[in-house]
Amino acid sequence: CSTTGYVWRFSVYAGKENDRPEHGLSHRVVMDLMKGLFHKWHCVHMDSFYTGVLLFVDLFVRGTYAIGTVRRDRKCLPPAIIEPAFVKRMKRGESVYRRSQFLLCTTWKETRDVSVLSRC
Hints:
Largest sheet: 5 strands, mixed
Strand order of the largest sheet: 1-2-5-4-3
Low-confidence stretches: none
Helix content: 10-25%
Oligomer: single chain
């Protein structure tokens, strides 16, 4: 983000694009909006609608870091992070994390469970 807070790019959703393979709407939107910013090692922050393992790996391969809250029902998250029984046993203030070669996924317990996926 610039110091002036200008908008880099925006997109109005007009339905699925049939001429391109799609990994999901959120994946396509982020990749389209990031054009021109790849390979500069910026860190993109996003909310749980956009955050996903495949997107974060694709961004990293293109020289971009990412971090965002993540829904625990997303594909490819570590079992200890998404297993409801495990998270339910956690006490307020406790956290658990799992790390892979590319990503760090953390869940902590507050008033509700909060999960974050990071490659920053």
